[in-house]
Each structure stands twice: as structure tokens, then as C-alpha cells.
Amino acid sequence: MSFFVNLVTLNCWAIAQPWPFGSKDRKERLKRLVDALEESDYDIVTLQEIWSEKDFDKISTNLAHVYPYSHYFHSGFTGSGTCILSKYMIVSTLVHRYSLNGFAHHIHRGDWFGGKVVGLAELNVKGLRVAIYTTHLHAEYNRDNDLYLPHRISQAFELAQFLDHTSRSSDFVILTGDFNIEPEDLGYHIIAKIANLEDAWLKRPSTHGSNDNGMTCDRPDNCYTNKHQLKRWPEGKRIDYIMYQSGKKHIELVECLTCLDKIPGSKLNYSDHIGLHAKFKISTG
Ligand SMILES: *[C@@H]1O[C@H](CO)[C@@H](O)[C@H](O)[C@H]1NC(C)=O
């Protein structure tokens, strides 16, 4: 027997404060995201930067007929921003809050207040134990003088350790989220090597004739991109990932594509990031 599991992840950039403190067009973007998810055929959705639990309640309530199971990972003062929606039953959840996460006196950076975490939701997928992780690591504000680099590196190490030690009884393991780390960075290799994960974007079997370079943030074709950033990163950055580990059952990656890019019939994008989705074929017996 075999079946498909289709998963999507998106950093939603949804700070629920009035502009310019909060995120531009938040309500409209989240409404349209709900519409898109309602019409999609994703089985599992992980989101980051849903900073207000009210926004999460609205999203999960409006999508309950499609995704009956959902969970918001609580942390810090504002919530961790990470959550999961699923067609499959969430059997248990666990959250780990990173020990180092910016500085409390850096009030102009939201990171410390959010209490960055990795969240785990164990799903029952047709009798298989599937561990879905979602995370959002500390932002990189200045690559040349990165005050938070040790924080992000230690978060990468804790993430990998947490995943390694909590996933051992799972049949299938998927890690999603915004790492704020590029593929050439040390943190990327710490996560992939220690937790024994494959990067779905690099392992995708076919590019479907698309010339998409997989950049997920600060893209030149995104209406929220800071033009200043484009001087240094003309194509944007790849910092959002789907990584996976095949366990005891046979797992095959069928496709991995960027998605949730342009809102149909609108000039807006869903977020300042774009989504990433991966489809896996799972064979049992
Ligand atoms: C953002 O939206 C515009 C307008 O719909 C679209 O042309 C563009 O491709 C979108 N960009 C991304 C990165 O999704």
C-alpha cells in the first residue's frame, strides 16, 4: 500500500500591531491565506510568525472543516508564532524553548519577547507515527556584524539535539520552518548533520521545467522586499526549509516547490516570504 503526504510551510509575517510597528496588509493577507489553504490539497500546514493567538484562532476556526486538528505553540510574552494545522490527528505535542534567544534589553528586536521555540507535533498518519517539527530561529539583522550569530548557532545545535532525541520512535520525521540561516552557513550543516536530515529542495526529483531558484525571502519579485537588501542579495535568500529523515518505512520525496507566492487577483503577496511545499510517497508493508 502507498499514499501521499503533502506538506506546506510559510512564514506569514503577521505582527498584529498597527503599521509601521506591525506587518503591512496583515488582515487581508491572512484572509487570503485561509482561502488558499481551503482550496489546496495540503495535508499538513506549518506556519511561522503568527504572533497573535487571536490570528491563530481565526485561521484554525475558519479552516476546521479542512484541518480538524491544530495547535499553537505557546511561549514568551507574545507566543512563539509557530503553529500547525493538520488533516491527520495530532496525538501529542512538545515544545522546546531555545536557551539563548537574543537580549531582553533589545526591545527593538522582537525575538526575545517571542521566546523562540521548536515545536513538535506527533501525528497519526494511517497508523504511522509521524513527527512534524516547526521552528523559527533568531533573525539575522546584520550579516557583517551579526551580534546574534552565537545565539542562532546554539539554537541550531539545540534544534538538532531535540529532534534527534525526540524522533527516535517515529516512522517519519519532517522539520519545517524559517531558520534564518542560508545553506552555506554553519548552522545549516549543524542541523542537517546532527539530526541526519535531507534538504527537500536539494533532493527534489524534478524541477518541472521551472527556473525557480528556491529563494524564499527578500525576493526581488515580492512587494514587501526592502530594496536596500537587493543590493547585497539580488535574488533573495533561501532561509525557509523542509528537511526530512526517512525512518523505518519507505519514504520517497515526489516533489518540492515554492508556493503561496502571489495572491490571485491582487497586487499583494501572502507574506514577505513565500511558501515551500513537499509531497512524499509513503509505502508500507
Ligand atoms: C508577488 O505578487 C506579484 C503580484 O501578484 C507577483 O507578480 C509576484 O510574482 C509575487 N512574488 C512572489 C515572490 O510571490
Automatic annotation (TrEMBL):
GO molecular function ontology, one term from the record: metal ion binding
Primary localisation category: membrane
Subcellular location: Membrane
Key word Nucleotidyltransferase present: no
EC number: 3.1.4.12
Signal peptide positions (record): 1-18
GO biological process: sphingolipid metabolic process
TM helices/strands, residue ranges: none
Keyword vocabulary terms for this entry: Hydrolase, Lipid metabolism, Magnesium, Membrane, Metal-binding, Signal, Sphingolipid metabolism, Transmembrane, Transmembrane helix
Residue intervals of the Endonuclease/exonuclease/phosphatase domain: 9-273
Recorded metabolic or biological pathway in which this protein acts: Sphingolipid metabolism; Lipid metabolism; sphingolipid metabolism
Domain of life (superkingdom): Eukaryota
Topology of this chain in the membrane: Multi-pass membrane protein
GO CC annotation: membrane
Family: Belongs to the neutral sphingomyelinase family.
Name the UniProt record assigns to this protein: sphingomyelin phosphodiesterase
Organism: Acrobeloides nanus
